Amino acid sequence: MGEKNDAFCTFMEKEDVFADFINGTVFGGRREVAPEELETVPGIYHAKKKNG
């Protein structure tokens, strides 16, 4: 648990998939986020938990 799921992350990197996901879950199906409004942001999106 807590490990990165590469298949899911790759799937969600697609702008149209991510926009549909956000519109469906956050906005109840209303089209508030358009795929053409999104851009990829490089960087770390999760951090490893440190022991101790």
TrEMBL record:
It comes from the Bacteria. This is Uncharacterized protein.
